[in-house]
Amino acid sequence: MRVALMGIYTLWLRDITRFLKDKPRIVSSAAQPLLWLFVLGMGISTAFMRGGNGSPEYLRFIYPGIISMSVLFTSIFSAVSIIWDREFGFLKEVLVAPIPRWSVAVGRALGGSTVAVLQGAIILLFAPVVHVSFGVLQLLGAFLIMFIIAFSMTSFGILVAARMQTHEGFQVIMNFILLPMFFLSGAMFPVGKRLPIWMQALVRIDPLSYGVDALRQTLVGKNVLAGIGSFPIWLDLLIIVCFGAVMLTIGAYYFEKTE
Questions:
Q1: Alpha carbon of 187 to those of 121, 209, 214, 227: distances in Å?
Q2: What predicted TM-score, i.e. pTM, was given to this entire model?
Q3: 154 neighbors 76 (Cβ within 8 angstroms)
Q4: Contacts of 115 (CB under 8 A, 6+ apart)
Q5: Rg (CA), the chain
Q6: Which end of the chain lies in a sparser environment, N or C, as judged by fewer CB atoms within 10 Å?
Q7: What's the confidence (pLDDT) of residue 105?
Q8: How far apart are CA 259 and CA 106, in angstroms?
Q9: What secondary structure letter does DSSP report for 130?
């Protein structure tokens, strides 16, 4: 077990070090969520007010969704480094190292999750700008939920990356999955009963819906627009944790079978 923990720590530290040394990556990956929040969010919020619904709190509503988007995209695409490592031979060296292969999947999942949480923390710094305030317990809860979302989505990315041979194929598959997953998560609009039935069904099978719902309940409560708190928060956490556990287990299995 000590050897496995050392392997997990080494892979986790490698991901964190690479992230902290890559300043352009930090800036560029934070810029896109802020563009969605302040440009698209303010534009849609203005449209709501002109329609007479008076929804100046729309920015507060989408704020947790934008954080989830940042965590989602960072988590998934952190797994693409597995394919780069395979192409450059680093993954082969790791797999022949005297550590359990499942620890490789766990180490990569923890590394990608930590990087994604750091990205989400950058967006959290803009909370006062969108008039979102929270206490210490809410902040700790938000970090916990961000980590659960990040771990689940990184595990999903690892599962896909373990079966892909080229990063171009990984990008195509992930883009095909990520955008529907994000748009159906309720990040940009309430996912109440006013949605078509077919859309409600897709929302319920989207694991990110539960992460966004939990983060929104934690950061802004249940009084901003309709549709908040669509699910009990314990159910949100249970589903996203189970999803991550299943993805990581299957991903670790594929690492065990890799020749």
A1: 17, 8, 11, 11
A2: 0.86
A3: yes
A4: 15, 16, 19, 74, 78
A5: 19
A6: C
A7: 82
A8: 19
A9: G
